């Protein structure tokens, strides 16, 4: 991976907080930055090795003669520094015109830092990011070329060898700046190669930030919702996608994570949860019918049991799940083999909806009396009271496993979630 550039350094939060204004060197922002340090020694250019971003409070420039200021800039440029950042407004009221002019002549990036931010915060964040980039260098096969957003999302979804400074720098370069207390939610879409659906959803959310990119056959996004936003962020994201997504699209929403707690691994977790949930939504029958002629919008929490039961792959768990199904639901399976009934599905729907007869009957499109007859039949065959709280977990797990391993008619054709291929 290439070295961190001056452009990426400028995107770091501590640097942005200083409100930098680029006065010269606009064409040199992609210079690699070897190190960032501060110095008030104005005769110290000979101690520089090149590639540094130099920070100074400008005190030594305030009373210097015009030619001394110009010579200072020339010496820095001759040493090959990546840029000069000068704090203005405190020791130095404004950037001297001679400094600006000489920097432009030498095509040296010159920054005026308009707000006071302790240099130690800037150097710590920048140098950690530089070291992180060097440690995580790797060869990657990317069909998306120089698309920084796609590359970052792919690395996060693949849980590549990253760390926090690098992730923050790359996210900032892509214009993604989660605020204090922000909640991040990963989203994976199938059925489109355009990001327009995500953009519409973000507009409906209002005030949300987003990283999004289209991959072959799928779109991956990481949404940032303000911490002050009330309500459940996962539900909010699901609702806007039900409006924004068109018929035939499948949308999987990951869980909500804190942007500031747990670091980039939490960012990765919600994207991976969305991707895993999308794959399940496309390959196993839904527990409940979707909205006719509308998108299928689901979430990692809605398919939490399915994700746990298939951890490591469905084929690897098939024998174990089949044994669980036959041990728990054997009498129902025997009955259904010789009768036209839907008892297992009825039981799962009933359990998933809090054993509410009204909700269950509505979802199954049957009358309440027919539902009561089915439930009575189920209890008779199993010899159990399905409202016994000790049995709810076992029965729900078994009915879910049955749907996974039996693959009744109506299952969607198998497909795969986005795959980001890399080499060592």
From TrEMBL:
Residues 343-395 form the PucR C-terminal helix-turn-helix domain. InterPro entries: CdaR-like_regulators, PucR_C-HTH_dom, PucR_C-HTH_sf, PucR_dom. It comes from the Bacteria. It holds the Pfam family HTH_30. Residues 8-130 form the Purine catabolism PurC-like domain. This is Transcriptional regulator. It comes from Streptomyces canus.
